[in-house]
Every structure is written in structure tokens, then in C-alpha cells.
Design brief:
two-stranded antiparallel sheet; alpha/beta
């Protein structure tokens, strides 16, 4: 997949590197691009978005409205992964703002409920952590491929369930606090297969 990672902080850079290692074509978009010999795939936002199939939004929540005002047209018809968090706001996700700015974008809520450290090291004692996500059913396989590329286990909650995904965020924060600030905390759903019918 051709992926534009918008934002070059800890979350964007960690996820983009994981996608690239898995063989995806990744271009990072930044308001202040500073490509180097080690990381030539950093460009301005418009260039990063130009031919992307998937857009990962990993910018500070306060920067999102400005980004949408300038680049919403580039999101039309694209798979857009919202990894932003408006901490302390009544709604943490940007689903409504994205729907208004880019109504044909296919919205995904993912990569927002674990600290970036767990994207860098997603396995705990040999077991990958779960990543809860929501997206249109037709896009589930593509999103699961990207989550698996990071080394996490996809945990699909259905379409339009971004508020349910966001419910995991305060739980993760509480677990970090209860563990003395240790951010290497994650979740795993245990599931037993139904007994076979006799």
C-alpha cells in the first residue's frame, strides 16, 4: 500500500517505520520537512498526500483543523486512519470533523489507545498486544494488514465504533498510572472458540 504518514513525532515515525519494514511504500508528511540521507521520504504535506492510498493522521489534535482546512480535498475517497486524541475533550476522535471536511473519506479509528512505546515493542512475553479499531467492513482486511505489520493483533469492534475504541484510552491511562507511570502496558482479549455442535 502507498501510505502517507502525516506527522513525524513518536507515533507517526514509529508506525511509518513498521509499515515500511513490512514492504509498504511510506512517505512522511510534515509542515516543516527536513529530509536527510537517512530518511529521504519526508516531504511537505501536499507531496506526501499526492498518490497515497492510505493516510495516517498522527498530528497533535490542535493541528488537525488547520490540516483539514488546507488538505481535506486530498483525503477524498482515501482510507484515513485517525490516530489523533483530543485529550480532555468530550470526544477524543476526529470522526465528525473528518466527515464534514472530507465526506467521501473512509474513516478508521486506530493506533490511538496505546503509547508509541507499545508500537515499537508490541510483544509481551511472546504474546502480541491487541489493538482495538473501527472501520468500514469493506476496509477491515486492509486495516488488519497494517495493524499486523506493526506486530499487534487486530481487535475489530465494527463500523462506526470509534467512541467504543476511545473508551479503551482512559483505561490505558489508568493502567499506566496504577503501574507507576510504566507505559509498557497493553491489553489482550481472551476468547474461547465455541464448542462444536454434536
Amino acid at each position: 500500500m502507498r501510505i502517507a504518514v502525516i506527522g513525524t513525532g513518536n507515533i507517526g515515525s514509529t508506525l511509518g517505520a513498521a509499515f515500511a519494514r513490512a514492504g509498504h511504500q511510506v512517505r512522511f508528511g510534515s509542515r516543516h520537512p527536513q529530509p536527510s540521507a537517512d530518511d529521504p521520504q519526508v516531504s511537505d504535506l501536499a507531496t506526501a498526500l499526492a498518490d497515497a492510498e492510505v493516510v495516517l493522521l498522527a498530528v497533535p489534535a490542535a493541528a488537525l483543523d488547520g490540516f483539514l482546512a488546507e488538505h481535506a480535498g486530498a483525503l477524498a475517497g482515501r482510507l484515513v486512519i485517525d490516530a489523533t486524541n483530543r485529550i480532555g475533550a468530550p470526544v477524543a476522535n476526529a470522526a465528525a470533523r473528518l466527515s464534514q471536511a472530507a465526506p467521501t473519506a473512509r474513516y478508521v479509528r486506530a493506533f490511538n489507545t496505546l503509547g508509541w512505546e507499545n508500537f515499537a515493542q508490541p510483544v509481551f512475553d511472546g504474546v502480541p498486544a491487541d489493538l482495538f479499531f473501527s472501520c468500514p467492513a469493506d476496509d477491515r482486511a486492509a486495516v488488519e494488514e497494517l495493524i499486523t505489520a506493526v506486530g499487534l493483533r487486530p481487535a475489530y469492534l465494527g463500523e462506526g465504533k470509534q467512541d467504543v475504541v476511545d473508551g479503551v484510552l482512559p483505561l490505558w491511562f489508568a493502567l499506566v498510572q496504577a503501574n507507576g507511570g510504566n507505559r509498557r502496558v497493553a491489553l489482550r482479549v481472551l476468547q474461547k472458540e465455541p464448542d462444536a455442535q454434536v
